[in-house]
Amino acid sequence: MAPEINYWAVILATLSSMIVGTVWYTPKVFGTYWMRVAKVTPSGNAKDAAWPIVITLIVSFITAWVLAGAAYISWDFYGGSFLVNALVTTIILWAGFTAARFITHDAFEGRPSGLTVLNIAHEFVTLVIMALIIGVWPA
Fold first, then answer.
1. Rounded distance, CA 13 to CA 1, Å?
2. 89 within 8 A of 67, measured Cβ to Cβ
3. How far apart are CA 49 and CA 74, in angstroms?
4. Is the CA virtual torsion 73, 76, 78, 79 positive or negative?
5. The dihedral sign for the CA sequence 28, 31, 34, 40
6. pTM of the model
7. What are the residues whose beta carbons fall under 8 Å from the beta carbon of 129, sequence distance 6 or more?
8. 4 vs 1, 59, 72, 106, 128, CA distance in Å?
9. Are 90 and 131 in contact, with CB atoms under 8 Å apart?
10. Is the separation of the CB atoms in 41 and 116 below 8 Å?
11. What is the C-alpha separation between 87 and 72, in angstroms, rounded?
C-alpha cells in the first residue's frame, strides 16, 4: 500500500525550506560567516542566484514528499500521533543520512568543522519545520 500524502502540506513544507534558508543565510544571521568559511563570493548579480534557487525548490519538494511518505509509513506501522511520528522519523533520517553524509564529505574535503556544524544545523531546522507542517496536516 502506498503512503497517503497531503500534497498541500508538502508544498507548504517546500516553501518553508526556502524561508528558513533565506533567514539562515542572511548576512545578519549566519550568511557572513558562511560566505567566509565556505569561500563564497557573491557576484552581486541576482541572475546568478536563479538556477540555485530553482534547484533548491525542486530538491526541497522531493525532500518534503519523501518525508511525508516516511512519516506516513512510520505512523501506519507504530500508530499513535502522526505529528510525533513525523518528528521522530525526521530526526532519525536527519541523523542517519543528512548529518552523517555532511560530516563524512566535509571531513574528506577538509572543510572547517564550523561550516559542517552550520550546514547540518540548517538542515536540522529545515527538516524539523517541514516535519511540523507535515505532522499537523496529515493526509
1. 24
2. yes
3. 36
4. positive
5. negative
6. 0.94
7. 13, 16, 17, 20
8. 9, 20, 7, 36, 20
9. yes
10. no
11. 11
Helix (H, G, I), strand (E, B) or coil at 2: coil
Q: At residue 1, does pLDDT exceed 80?
A: no
Q: Is the pLDDT of residue 56 over 80?
A: yes
Cell of 126: 529545515
CA distance 100 to 77: 25
| Distant-in-sequence, close-in-space partners of 104: CB < 8 Å, separation ≥ 6 | none
Grid cell 571531513 — which residue? 107
* Residue 44 confidence (pLDDT) above 90: no
**Do 75 and 138 contact (CB within 8 A), yes or no?**
yes
Here the cell at position 11 is 508544498
Average predicted confidence (pLDDT) for the chain: 95
- The 10 Å Cβ neighbour count of residue 6 is 16
